[in-house]
Amino acid sequence: MENVDSGTTEEVQDDAGIASIEDFLDRIEDPDESMLQSFQTDFEIVKESLDITTDLNDDNGSCEYKANKELSEKWESDAGSVKPNKKSNDGFEDCVFKGTVDSLNFPVGPGTLIYTNMDAFTGTFDHGIRNRTGVRIFSGGETSKISGTWVHGFLTGKARIEYTAGGYVEGIYKVGVLHGFAREFGIGGYLKEFSCFSNGVRIGWIYKGMIGGGYVIGKVDDKGDLTGKDIAFVYPDFRTAIKGQFTGGVLESGQECRVTSSRQVGGVIVPRYSQVQGPSYSYDPAST
Question: Does residue 2 carry a pLDDT above 50?
Answer without folding.
Answer: no
